[in-house]
Amino acid sequence: MFNRPLHSILDGTILLAVEPPQQLDVLVRIFKTWRSEVCICPRDSHGGLLELALACLPDLVIVSADWSNGAPTASHGEPGHSAEKLAYDPGGLAGYDLCRQINRDPRLGSAPIVLLESPTVSLDRDRTFRCGASDYIAHPIVEQELCHRVRHHIRRHRLEKDAIRRSAQLRVPLRAPVPLLAEVQKRLRKQAHLIQKHNQDLAHEISEREVTEQALRAEKFRSEKLLLSIFPQAIVDRLQDENRSSIAERFDEATILFADIVDFTPLSSRLSPMELVGILNRVFSAFDRLTERYGLEKIKTIGDEYMVVGGVPTPRPDHGEAIMEMAIAMRRAANKLGREIGHRLQLRIGINTGPVVAGVIGLQKFSYDLWGDAVNVASRMESHGLPNRIQVTEHTYEKLKHRYKFERWQNTKVKGKGRMTTYLYIGRKENVEPTKFEDGHRLGGKADGAIAPNQPLPNQSALPPKPPDKHYLDVLGINHSGQTEP
Question: Between β-strands 113-116 and 60-64, what pairing exists: parallel, antiparallel or unpaired?
């Protein structure tokens, strides 16, 4: 707040033609505390603003840029009348026209006009000054800034009136001494110089303020863009809350997907680090675009592993279908990219559905993550999966079996969970209404973009059959002697 000795300057007459009721209430409250005389032009007046201004002879006029309800605009007066009248214009923004009309009326004594920016309509700064306004007030209204601007214009207006009054008092007949006229002219020039200096200072202040506002807006845009590249929009809004505590929320049901590249370690040994990073960047960039397409949330990447979730942080009933469509599209994208770069790229994909806790914890280097048994099981579905296949848990199968075909997998021995019944995706069911995610491709089986295990790549001969290793024998529940474990 500022000191109240400004009362001696702010006790003038102020005319308000303000459209938004909230802004009008704020201005009236502020000016009343300054002991100013406030005249309010009714919003339903029809051309009565000029008459009201002539009646109260204000020291300052504040007009809304969007003054339209009963807003006066310029029109030519009837023949025989020396002054123009204000005609009612029910449409358009008449605040600028109102400024021009008041400036053209000599009876108002060049009262300064300040245009007020509306909460819904931004001011055209160039047009503001071209229409004859002395200044503008941006939205939202800052009381201290309002005080200084009003003080400046009231002081300037009174200086101009005093100069005119003194000039009239000092008018003398032609027989008066010449030195008296010279003194009057000298004082008038001094007053004009002071007024010009005040105007230059105000213009400089306005220019500096606009530059600062533009820099602040650009910096805010960059910071919000950076946050949105790391967190979901809902989490960014909560992080910006100064009163926030740790951000963690439970979701009763979500679907989690893990995917990694098969035989990534041998591939990395054959490529240079830059080539390897380039391939990973192309693969994960394609996955990021799919995540945005299906409205899912990417959680993180660890090495060659990619994690995405549906139904978090914004719950949605179709999170299972969205994740399954994402898995199908990921497999197709990986196979296509493998053909382009001349290296076989096959994915192992695991999916599970269940309750999770999601949020941001800690004080530094924030990251949005998931916790819960459902997350661990989804990771096991990926690590115990088969190349180029999508493996889901029984819970996910129950949610998706009405739309997709699955084959039941033998009881899979899962680390930390014992034996679990899992399912491998085969294709879509026929005569089922397409989901909003489907793009018209005939998906399912090889049409999903899958490549047969030994299908040759461009410029590459067919690979010999690879015998199952110990890991896949364990997945199939077969011991090393070839006998099925009980």
Answer: parallel
* Mean pLDDT, rounded, for 122-141: 85
Q: Judge contact between 63 and 115, C-beta under 8 A.
A: yes
Domain that holds residue 24: 4-169
Q: What is the pLDDT of residues 95-128, one digit of tens each?
A: 788 888 887 877 776 788 888 888 887 888 888 8
What was the pLDDT predicted at 127?
A: 85
pLDDT exceeding 70 applies to what percent of the chain? 72
Q: Are 161 and 298 contained in the same domain?
A: no
Residue 444 is assigned to a structural domain of this protein? yes
Return the minimum-mean-pLDDT range out of 59-63, 163-167, 257-261, 355-359: 163-167
Give the pLDDT confidence score for residue 328 in this predicted structure: 95
Can you give the pTM of this predicted structure?
Answer: 0.47
For 391, phi then psi, to 5°, come to -105, 130
- Are residues 260 and 144 part of one domain? no
DSSP string of 316-360, one letter each residue: -TTHHHHHHHHHHHHHHHHHHHHHHHTS---EEEEEEEEEEEEEE
What is the DSSP annotation of 234-286? HHHHHHT-TT---EEEEEEEEEEEEEEETTHHHHHHHS-HHHHHHHHHHHHHH
Q: In terms of domains, do 375 and 457 share one? A: yes
Which of the listed residues 140, 169, 198 is the one where a domain comes to its end? 169
Q: What is the dihedral of CA 102, 106, 111, 113, to 10 degrees?
A: 20
CB-based burial, 112-138: b 16+ in 10 Å, e otherwise: bbbbbbbeebebeeeebbebbbbbbbe
Statement to judge: residues 123 and 272 lie in one domain = no
Q: Are residues 248 and 108 in the same domain?
A: no
Q: Please state, in angstroms and rounded to a whole number, the distance separating the CA atoms of residues 236 and 228.
A: 7
Whole-angstrom Cα distance, residue 102 to residue 90? 19
Amino acid identity, position 155? R
In a domain, 304, yes or no: yes
Q: In whole angstroms, give the CA distance from residue 265 to residue 79.
A: 94
Q: Give per-residue pLDDT as tens, 311-322.
A: 988 899 999 999
* 210: enclosing H helix or E strand: helix 178-228
Q: Say if 219 falls within a structural domain.
A: no
Q: What is the CATH number of the domain that holds 128?
A: 3.40.50.2300
Q: Which residues pair with 17 in a beta bridge?
A: 63
Q: Has residue 288 got a pLDDT over 90?
A: yes
Q: How far apart are CA 130 and CA 162, in angstroms?
A: 27
The beta-strand segments (E) located in 105-156 are 113-116, 135-137
Indicate whether 217 belongs to any domain.
no
| Overall domain count for the chain | 2
Among the three residues 126, 151, 169, which one is the final residue of a domain in this structure? 169
